[in-house]
Structure formats: structure tokens, C-alpha cells
Write a structure and sequence with these properties.
Elements (H helix, E strand, L loop, with lengths): L6 E2 L5 H6 L29 E3 L2 E9 L12 E5 L18 E11 L5 E7 L2 E2 L1 E6 L2 E2 L5 E2 L5 E4 L7 E10 L12 E2 L7 E2 L3 E2 L3 E7 L3 E9 L4 E8 L13 E7 L2 E8 L4 E5 L15 E7 L2 E7 L4 E5 L5 E5 L2 E2 L3 E5 L13 H13 L4 E4 L6 H10 L2 E5 L13 H5 L1 H15 L5 E5 L10 H14 L4 E2 L12 E2 L10 E2 L13 E6 L13 E8 L18 E2 L8 H21 L3 E5 L23 H15 L3
Parallel strand pairs: 13-14, 27-28, 27-37, 28-29, 29-30, 30-31, 34-35, 35-37
Antiparallel strand pairs: 1-36, 2-16, 3-4, 3-5, 5-12, 6-11, 6-16, 7-15, 8-9, 8-10, 8-12, 17-18, 18-21, 19-20, 19-22, 22-23, 24-25, 25-26, 32-33
């Protein structure tokens, strides 16, 4: 977000944060016995797995005088909730000069010919992992949003083993992505998160196993191509006649089969009519794959998303070869009781289904990577996702400044890792590498990032840079980052590469759009932000709330709806003139920010859902020329 218009701004005192917990109805039901027991990787399922969520012992020590693994522990912490969260049972800030240690006993019964894999789906920021005295991370894992897997077979003994994790998280002042985390939360920046914040689990696999896969649908040919990544041990099977087999089902009935060898590739022809995936009809095919003694199951959707010209020559989004107007919300994914970690799968489902009920067909997942089960729900329920790369800083908005450039190498690593992790997700149709210049480097490196993303994943579009610092037909900001003094840049000449597929406008309240052009679709990546406080559902007192443009016309529920529908009438007009899609700020209130459709505790929907749905349907119809 940014400085613009009139704002109500407040700082968030640490003492007040500690003293005023807010709970969702799902958080109130969380116990150490039921915390995140669902299978954590629904896109690639095996039957033999062990959940390691629940109570662990923890300790916080100094980074400068810690001789080794703690001999005494501070108490219990509930995994996978960050130490700062209420649901962790600790609710304590971790400082940059401290280590956070975790330990628990794991029980393993090794089998000849099988491997034991230990999975961490999210640890913020840097983690070292030990079995007994032995460190099993050859290199400490760095990256809060990137799952990682360790083969611990050679370190464990039959029976009980001691698992220990040491975490360091500076939050700011370093090269890593942190999104909207702040050491001193204020305005639209939120309570920081440290340590394990997604599921920890184990599974048993044969020595020759499927390590991962990619799936590429082609709706025009009616085919789907799998590329299975096989373990190193699989190479030993060369020449032994070990083939992989794939079986595709729809509605519980087998519809296609195929085979693959050690190259892992297999293209399967689907019978007509091919069932396309869309938010309106979220059809998914299931599959299972066998390789030797290994078996996985998963799913995929047959969908195609692109930018191309409509019948009038205007660049618009197309889904499955038809003009499609994505209308969604900016979705922060923060929770009052779990912070970055949703309280439960039911809690995630509530947010997604509420957006659908209000007539949205898309969300912009803003500067956060969710658990993979979250995207599974978007696939099943039917909601497009424009996925941000979490920003590495919120303070560096001067391209080519030393602070922005030093992040760039690791930023590219994190972008690639995020795409690798989420590439199997049907609902994700766009990547957004940069938001409003936060940690963004200069023109050359920005273009290089966008161009890399487009080349690396040709099945999705690249949006942005979102909101600022776009040298290819978007906005630049003058020295001092004065939002109202933005200047619009010119598009590249015909034949010269523009690395993104959209020019992405941010304007509060807005709405507005960049002019229709022949190079990139005009997209409204953020607007709205109507503030409305609901008493007894605020993170702190009402005098500390923060929003865009004040609340003079939105302080009542009637005024809020009237103002919102007025904005949407303007969006409808823009859509008829060529606006390709829009993102309203935002799904929920977050801490002191009161711009949500829903209160932070998810207990009050501020709007009449039917009225919103009707307005959104009119915008979609206008974009489609109806």
C-alpha cells in the first residue's frame, strides 16, 4: 500500500498487541491434538505419511553466546503456528539477535529398500535441522516461503530419535522476502512471523520414487503432458525394464492411460468432450502414477489463460479461448490468532467461499504464499489466483539503490522456488513479481526478472510491475516517492520486448486505468480500500484504525454499500472501454486496517453479498460486450 489521499494512521504499540488477542471461531477450536492434521500436499498424495504437528519443546537463546543445543527448554510451542501468534501458545516476539530452537521425538522404523523423507512446508527464515547430534541440512535452508525436504534415512535409528530445529529470523535488514511483516507493525504492515509456520511431516518412499512432477494441459489438442522428476536412485533401474504408468480418471471413471520411462515424460490424449476448468465450472481430472514400488495420486485442470485481442482489437484476458474479466480482491491471508498461518482448513474455506458468494471470480494473493492445501481449495471451489512474490522489503522504493540491488540474486531464487512449488496449481493464472517498488531494482534487472518469469512458465501471464516503477508503459515515481506526482512512461516500440503482459494501475480510491494499447492489457491491480469499522470486532481501539481516504461516507453500513456500488459502476464503464480486470482492496480487515469486506475475526460480513454479486456480474457482462 502507499501514502495517498487522506489517511487515518496509527502506530501499533507492542504492549497493546500482546494484551489484546482476537480469535476466530476456528482458532477457538484449535488444540495441540487437532492442529493441521490434513494431508499437507493434496496435489501429490502418498498413503504412508506421519504428521509431526502439535506440541514441541522450544527455547530462545542468544545468537552470540549459545554454545550448542539448549540443555533447558522454555516450554511447549504448538507447531505449525509461529512463536508470535496466539495459537502457538507462546505469543512472544523473536528478536534478530536470538535463535529459536524446537525439539521433539520422532519414531522411525527403517525398511530395507525405502527412504524416510522429512518435510518442512514453511520455516521463517533460516533453518538448521538435526537428528540427535548430526546436522542433516548440508546447507542451512533459507527462504520462508519455500518448502524443503530432507532425506534422513542415514541419520535415524530404529525407534525413537531426537529431532531438533534451530531458526534465525531477522525479519528486516536482510536479503530475504518478508512480505508485510514489520518489527513495529503500523498501518498496512503487520505483526511479524518467525519459525515454523507451516506443516512438518514425514513420509516413507521406495529408493526409486517420484520426487515431483509438472503437468501441462493443452485444451486445443485435448492432451495433458506429465513430466515426472525421479529420484537419483531411479537411474539405477536403467535397462531393467521399469516403466512408469499413469491412469487419468474423471468422475471416478478411468478415461486415459499412459506410460513413461526414466525421462519421466508422458503425454495423454483425453476423450472428447474435454472438461475445461473455470471458476464457474471447476472441473478437475484425477490421476495416479506408479513407478516401481512408488505410487502417487494427484489432479489437474484443463484450462488456458492468456492475453490476446478481442473482436474489437482490445487486449483482454482470455480463459479457455473466451474473453474473461477477472474481478477479485486483494487478499492478505493474515489471521488474528494464527498470523500467517490459517487456524484450519475450514477457516481457509470460509474466506474463499465468501468471495465466491459475493460474486468474485479471482483473488490477488498479496505478498504471501499460502499452504498448498489453500490452493487446492481454490482449485476445487473455483477461484482464479494472481500470485505475488512476497516482497523482500517495504522500505526500499528507489530502484538501483544499493538496498534493492543486494536482494536481487536471492529474489530470483525465491521467485523460481515459488513457481516450482506452485506450478501444479490449476487456479494460479498469473505471477506478480513486484509490488509498488518494494525491493525492486532498476530498469535492467526488473526487465530481466519479468522476462525470466515469462520464459520459465509459459502457461501463465506475468503482471506488472504492479503499481509503480514500470518503464514499459506504466508509472514511475519521482524522487521522494510522491504518489500524486507519478509520471507515465511510454511503451516500447513495436518489435522491442516488453516483459510483462499487463500494465498494472494502483489508485485509491480510484478506479482508473491505463489507456488501451497494443502491447499489454490494462489492469487495475489495486483500488477501493473503503474503510468501515465494526465495533467489538477491532484489533485495537477504534481510535487506532487505519484506512484510505477517511470514513466520512462509509461510516454506516448503508453509506458503505452505496459508496462501493458507486465505485463498481465506474469500473463497469471502464470495463466496457477495455479494462481487462480489477482488484478491490481487500478481503478482510487486518490488524488496524479496516478496508475489508469482512472483519478481521471473520465474524461480520460488512456488505450485502447479493448486491455485490449483482454489481460484479454487470461488470463482467460489460467487459464481454453484453
Amino acid at each position: 500500500m502507499k501514502k495517498l489521499l487522506k489517511k487515518v494512521v496509527c502506530l501499533l504499540p507492542l504492549a497493546a498487541w500482546s494484551a489484546a488477542p482476537m480469535m476466530t471461531e476456528w482458532g477457538e477450536k484449535v488444540t495441540s491434538e487437532n492442529a493441521w492434521r490434513n494431508y499437507p500436499r493434496p496435489q501429490m498424495v502418498r498413503s504412508a505419511w506421519t504428521c509431526l504437528n502439535g506440541d514441541w519443546d522450544y527455547a530462545v537463546t542468544s545468537v552470540t553466546n549459545t554454545p550448542g543445543r539448549p540443555e533447558k527448554w522454555d516450554g511447549k510451542i504448538r507447531v505449525p503456528y509461529a512463536i508470535e501468534s496466539t495459537l502457538s501458545g507462546v505469543k512472544r516476539f523473536l528478536e534478530a539477535d536470538q535463535f529459536l530452537w524446537y525439539t521433539r521425538t520422532i519414531t522411525v522404523h527403517p525398511r530395507k529398500g525405502y527412504r524416510t523423507l522429512l518435510h518442512f512446508d514453511g520455516v521463517d527464515f533460516r533453518a538448521q535441522v538435526y537428528i540427535g547430534h548430526n546436522e542433516v541440512t548440508d546447507v542451512p535452508h533459507a527462504g520462508a516461503h519455500e518448502p524443503f525436504t530432507l532425506d534422513i534415512t542415514d541419520y535415524v535409528k530404529d525407534g525413537d530419535n531426537e529431532l531438533t530445529v534451530c531458526v534465525w529470523d531477522p525479519t528486516d535488514g536482510f536479503i530475504q522476502s518478508r512480505g508485510k511483516q514489520e518489527r513495529k507493525p503500523q498501518g498496512c504492515f503487520y505483526t511479524r512471523v518467525s519459525g515454523i509456520w507451516q506443516s512438518v511431516w514425514m513420509e516413507t518412499v521406495p529408493e526409486a520414487y517420484i520426487a515431483d512432477y509438472e503437468v501441462t494441459p493443452d485444451i486445443d489438442r485435448g492432451t495433458v503432458t506429465f513430466r515426472f522428476m525421479l529420484s537419483e536412485a531411479s537411474l539405477k533401474t536403467a535397462g531393467l525394464g521399469v516403466d512408469g504408468r499413469v491412469r487419468v480418471t474423471y468422475g471416478g471413471r478411468a478415461v486415459a492411460r499412459g506410460t513413461f520411462g526414466l525421462d519421466g515424460e508422458c503425454t495423454v490424449k483425453l476423450p472428447a468432450p474435454v472438461q475445461h476448468w473455470s471458476p464457474e465450472s471447476p472441473n478437475l481430472y484425477e490421476f495416479d502414477a506408479d513407478f516401481g514400488h512408488d505410487r502417487i495420486s494427484g489432479y489437474f485442470g484443463m484450462r488456458k489463460f492468456e492475453v490476446k485481442k478481442d473482436a474489437k482489437g482490445i487486449l483482454r484476458f482470455h480463459l479457455n479461448n473466451k474473453v474473461y474479466y477477472p474481478i477479485g480482491t486483494l487478499d492478505q491471508g493474515w489471521w488474528p490468532d494464527g498470523l500467517l498461518t490459517p487456524p484450519s482448513e475450514d477457516a481457509m474455506r470460509f474466506d474463499i467461499e465468501t468471495l465466491k458468494k459475493c460474486g468474485f471470480n479471482m483473488m490477488r494473493k498479496h505478498i504471501k504464499v499460502e499452504p498448498r492445501s489453500y490452493y487446492h481449495l481454490c482449485d476445487r471451489i473455483g477461484l482464479l489466483v494472481f500470485q505475488d512474490l512476497p516482497s523482500c522489503t517495504s522500505t526500499s522504493r528507489t530502484p538501483m539503490g544499493a538496498d534493492a540491488v543486494k536482494h536481487y540474486g536471492f529474489q530470483r531464487h525465491e521467485m523460481k522456488a515459488m513457481m516450482d512449488n506452485l506450478r501444479k496449481i490449476t487456479s494460479i493464472v498469473a505471477w506478480i513479481p513486484y509490488n509498488e517498488g518494494w525491493g525492486q531494482p532498476g530498469e535492467h534487472l526488473t526487465h530481466a526478472m519479468l522476462d525470466f518469469v515469462r520464459r520459465y512458465d509459459r502457461s501463465r501471464i506475468v503482471s506488472g510491475p504492479s503499481g509503480a516503477w514500470d518503464w514499459e508503459g506504466g508509472h514511475l515515481l519521482p524522487k521522494g516517492w510522491k504518489w500524486d506526482d507519478r509520471v507515465e512512461t511510454k511503451h516500447k516500440p513495436t518489435g522491442v520486448c516488453e516483459a510483462a503482459d499487463t500494465v498494472d494501475m494502483h489508485l485509491y480510491r480510484g478506479p482508473a486505468m491505463f489507456a488501451v494499447n497494443d502491447r499489454r492489457a490494462s489492469f487495475l491491480g489495486e483500488f477501493g480500500g473503503l474503510g468501515h469499522a465494526v465495533s467489538n470486532h477491532l484489533w485495537q481501539s477504534e481510535r487506532k484504525i487505519w484506512g484510505y481516504g477517511g470514513t466520512a461516507d462509509t461510516s454506516t453500513k448503508e453509506g458503505l454499500l452505496k459508496t462501493y456500488l458507486g465505485l463498481m459502476a465506474q469500473v463497469k464503464d471502464l470495463a466496457s472501454k477495455g479494462l481487462a480486470g480489477s482488484v478491490y482492496t481487500q478481503t478482510t480487515d487486518v490488524e488496524n486496517e479496516i478496508n475489508g469486506l469482512i472483519t478481521y475475526d471473520r465474524k461480520v460480513l460488512k456488505y450485502d453479498a447479493a448486491a455485490l454479486k449483482k454489481a460484479h456480474e454487470e461488470i463482467i457482462a460489460a467487459a464481454e460486450g453484453k
